[in-house]
Amino acid sequence: MSVLKIIIYYLIAMNLAGFLFMGIDKWKAKKRAWRIPEATLLLIAAIGGAAGSMLGMHLFHHKTRHWYFLYGIPVMLALHILLFFFIWKGPVQFILL
Predict the structure, then answer these.
(1) What's the rounded Cα separation, in Å, for the pair 29 and 64?
(2) Residue 18 class from Cβ within 10 Å (0-12 exposed, 13-18 middle, 19+ buried)?
(3) Cα 21 from Cα 18, distance rounded (Å)
(4) CA distances from 57 to 9, 72, 90, 91, 96 (A)
(5) Cα–Cα distance, 56 to 30 (Å, whole number)
(6) DSSP for 13-82, written as a single string
(7) pLDDT tens, position by position, for the chain (97 residues)?
(8) Which candidate, 49, 56, 62, 75, has a CA 20 to 30 Å from the CA of 11?
(9) Distance of CA 80 to the CA centre of its chain
(10) Of 32, 41, 85, 92, which is closest to residue 63 (Cα–Cα)?
């Protein structure tokens, strides 16, 4: 399995987690139940789940009033896209042994 495939699977998993965590936290907010900490939501977005978190944020109308979510997650997404393209088209080829 190539490094690129591993990265793609990782990003799919993290974005799915980001989307689900936004939905779960919104559901818990409506039920006035124990909530997922904002630091956890931001951490998931930072380590690869920014696209899923942003989609969940807008689909569930959750955390859209917090500036650090509204502006921070799109910045993280832009950085993830840049990093992905640097790895994909960069001068160094990554090969697993």
Answers:
(1) 14
(2) buried
(3) 5
(4) 22, 12, 32, 35, 35
(5) 15
(6) HHHHHHHHHHHHHHHHHHHT-----HHHHHHHIIIIIHHHHHHHHHHTT-STT-HHHHTHHHHHHHHHHH
(7) 777 889 899 999 999 999 999 999 999 999 999 999 999 999 999 999 999 999 999 999 999 898 989 999 999 999 999 998 888 887 777 666 6
(8) 62
(9) 9
(10) 41
d(CA 94, CA 67): 37
Contact 17, 52 (CB under 8 A): yes
pTM, whole model, 2 decimals? Answer: 0.86
Residues 48 and 35: their CA atoms lie apart, in Å, by: 21
Contact 51, 77 (CB under 8 A): yes
Gap between the Cα atoms of 57 and 36, Å rounded:
14
